[in-house]
Write a structure and sequence with these properties.
It is a single chain. The protein is mainly alpha-helical. Among the domains are: 10-65; 70-115 and 265-438, no CATH class. Helices cover 73% and strands 0% of the residues. It contains 15 helices and no strands. Helix 7 (173-193) runs antiparallel to helix 8, helix 10 (268-286) crosses helix 15 and helix 12 (308-344) packs antiparallel against helix 13 (352-374). The chain is globular, with a radius of gyration of 22 Å.
């Protein structure tokens, strides 16, 4: 009888290499933007074609296809955005914004969380991302050295401070600084785990990333880098040691901070951001469930919120905000649970593969922490690179628990409750700040 049973069309565990190669091509198009550098490639919809092609390959040839709460949360945002647009009198814009969420957020997250099923694939992507960052650092350097202010990509620096820029999604100095900052954990991973030559290359790449952040003159990237460093010290060394190291590093950190533009709350630009946050909370208060509509914040305030959490809550309400925060916080919790597991597990039970997978998951965790900190000062809910790294972080977590005999490191129901609590606490915290500053 068993011999007559129908065999599965595909093996239980299969991930086509071709899909991975296409994700690298997708990353090349999204990040480095050769289609904007070379004129004959202008106008060709590479991103849309590659997205569809990778999705088709996943559906036809990838097994297993795992749907996680982050996928569901982001997908639900799409119809929610449509309803929000309808209720605010802009149904067409609601549909258009839902498409933006689908293309920039849902699809990249799903693709990267599915295809990056091995540690070697993540390592290749991290090297690629570092290489891409150096391309941008070099372009920024040529911008600052050129009398006209233009780099070899045809982009120019901005403002009197000569803040460097790049193409496409990284044309804003703050976005460019954010990308450099998210790459720093990648370089540190290779400094710690690569062979001698890899360590030397990674050390030079780390210097290039820091120089790139300096050239962007991005306060958000600088503050996020400081926060990411403080979090690393706290998690790695604990309270007392972290405080001692923090005090030791404070003088050089203050010196570096003094080089950047002023970050005082009394600065006109900073006060403008605080008022934008206040207006965002007022929009949320007036439209608590569906918000004022995606991409409509600027219609009510005149500028973006310069705070991703406020912008998301104001535009798509508490429901959309909690769904988006589920993606961010649940993915961060996955990374933190791996860090905790490695710290507490019996060393004899910690295999070499678990060490490597744990280090890769930890790398993604700190990269996403940097994004979440910078999101406090920038509006970046459509920053596609975040969803690519988040997808890779999800894949990394599931690779780790596979080595942990398939045992999950936490209960989803408990964590989701904590996610809701933390997400609401963020808004309350911002409200308290504003009550004492504006």
């Amino acid at each position: 009888m068993n011999s007559l049973q129908r065999k599965p069309l595909l093996p239980e565990d299969k991930s086509p290499a071709f899909a991975f190669v296409l994700t690298l091509l997708f990353s090349l198009i999204v990040i480095i933007r050769p289609q904007e550098i070379f004129t004959p490639l202008n106008g060709i919809p590479f991103i849309a074609v590659l997205s569809i092609l990778i999705l088709v390959i996943i559906l036809l040839a990838h097994r297993p296809i795992q749907i996680v709460p982050q996928h569901i949360a982001l997908l639900i945002i799409c119809p929610h955005v449509v309803i929000s647009g309808i209720l605010n009198g802009w149904p067409g814009e609601g549909v258009a914004e839902a498409q933006v969420y689908l293309v920039s957020c849902v699809i990249p997250l799903f693709i990267f969380s599915t295809v990056y099923s091995s540690k070697s694939r993540q390592i290749v992507f991290m090297w690629f991302s570092l290489f891409a960052a150096m391309v941008m650092v070099h372009n920024g350097y040529t911008q600052q050295q050129s009398p006209s202010g233009y780099g070899w990509t045809g982009t120019s620096h901005v403002e009197a401070a000569h803040r460097i820029t790049y193409l496409g999604i990284l044309k804003d100095p703050n976005d460019l600084g954010l990308f450099f900052m998210m790459n720093i954990p990648f370089s540190i991973y290779f400094i710690k785990h690569a062979k001698f030559l890899g360590k030397l290359i990674s050390l030079s790449l780390l210097g290039g990333l820091l120089y790139g952040i300096y050239m962007t003159n991005s306060r958000g990237a600088m503050l996020a880098l400081a926060g990411m460093t403080a979090l690393y010290l706290l998690i790695t060394y604990g309270g007392t040691k972290a405080i001692i190291l923090g005090l030791t590093l404070s003088p050089p950190a203050i010196f570096v901070a003094s080089i950047f533009r002023t970050v005082s709350s009394q600065e006109a630009s900073a006060m403008g951001r605080l008022w934008a946050w206040w207006d965002g909370l007022e929009m949320l208060k007036a439209n608590p469930i569906f918000g004022v509509g995606s991409n409509n914040f600027i219609d009510y305030h005149g500028k973006v919120a310069h705070n991703t959490y406020i912008q998301v809550a104001a535009e798509i309400g508490l429901v959309g905000y909690l769904l988006w925060m589920t993606l961010l916080l649940l993915t961060l919790y996955m990374g933190f649970s791996v860090i905790s597991k490695i710290k507490n597990i019996d060393k004899e039970k910690l295999t070499e593969t678990m060490k490597i997978e744990g280090a890769l998951c930890t790398t993604c965790f700190y990269s996403l922490c940097g994004f979440s900190m910078s999101a406090f000062f920038l509006t970046r809910n459509f920053f596609i690179i975040f969803y690519m790294v988040a997808g890779m972080a999800i894949a990394s977590y599931f690779r780790f628990i596979k080595e942990n005999n398939g045992q999950s490191l936490f209960e989803y129901k408990t964590v989701i409750k904590n996610v809701v609590f933390i997400a609401l606490s963020v808004l309350i915290f911002i409200y308290i700040i504003l009550k004492f500053t504006v």
